[in-house]
Amino acid sequence: MMKKIIILIMCLFPAIIFAQSASDYFHAAANHYVNANKKNAETIIREAIQKFPDDQKLKDLASKVEELPDPESEQNQQNQDKQDQQDQQDDQQSQDQKNEEQQQISPEDAQRLLDALSQDEKELLEKLQQKERAGRRPNIERNW
């Protein structure tokens, strides 16, 4: 008889050691809730409520966990924000490149501009020389 009791205790001992109370489930789920790990918190809460359907603390925590944002939708939003930011940067780079291309002058256009400036300079010099000649007094010999 004593052997049977000892064997029975030995068989139940692991179940007693590894059994979790409602409080253990609550603390595990609450830890995931605090760390915003909704998926793990929901899994633990679901298991706990199956074992302890009347525990009010578990039910309250379950409602709070449901209020957490979905990690997938949050991740999708972050990905969308990153994509929008990348698109903005690409648009800015494209605009900068277009502006740079517009500011560049072809060699033919550059040569034409240089020729025009050179021609304008020549004309200006000629006008100045004409004014100098017109403004000079004729050399008059003076005999005093």
List the helices and strands and how they pair.
Layout: H1 2-18, H2 22-34, H3 38-51, H4 56-67, H5 71-103, H6 107-135
Helix pairs in contact: 2-3, 2-4, 3-4
Summarize the structure in words.
It is a single chain. This protein starts with a helix and ends in a 9-residue tail after the last helix. The chain has 144 residues and is an all-alpha fold. The chain has a domain at 15-70. The longest helix is centred in the middle third of the chain and has 33 residues, at 71-103. 82% of the residues lie in helices and 0% in strands.
Strand content: under 5%
The total strand number stands at 0
Q: Give the SSE order as H and E letters.
A: HHHHHH
Number of helices: 6
Q: What shape does the CA trace take? A: rod-shaped
Unreliable parts: none
Largest sheet entry: none
Helix content: over 70%
Summarize the structure.
With 144 residues, this protein is mostly helical.
List keywords for this structure.
single chain; 144 residues; 0% strand; mainly alpha; rod-shaped; 82% helix
